[in-house]
Amino acid sequence: MSRKFSFTVPYSVPVEELHRALVDDAVWQARFAAAETATIELSHPNGPDSITLHMTETPGKDKVPGLVRKVLKSDLVLERTDTWQPLQGETAKGSFTGNTTGITTEMAGTYELRPTAEGSEIEVVGTVKVKVPLVGGAIEPLAEQLHQRVLNSERKFIENWFASAAG
Question: Which terminus of the chain, N or C, has less C-beta within 10 A?
Fold first, then answer.
């Protein structure tokens, strides 16, 4: 059984500027520059003003919840692929997929970037499925929370990126 989820990530940055950052290789390279256990591959198969990001991370055992550590078969490796399409008017569509090794997890969904009175927001809608007998349903909310924490961390990084560029 899979778990559906949705949440929004608010930004203080206008849509056009945020989209420009989301499809900019330099932003993502800077974001991952200090990440010792993470890698990123960037491509633009859908042309300019779009991007595909493939990210992997091997979190330290101290970063893995106890419930997950108990059912791991090998090292936990997180993989995520995001795509962003060109801006269409004041919105842009994206998608994400994610999976793990060490425990069978699948995540997929969509992004929608749109304007707000304060700047912009990304609406995230998706599903997560953890294929572990008995405890998979208990791990699914943890996977959703992790995705939300990662996107909020990216929001902080991007907003700081803009603040540094302005200063």
Answer: C
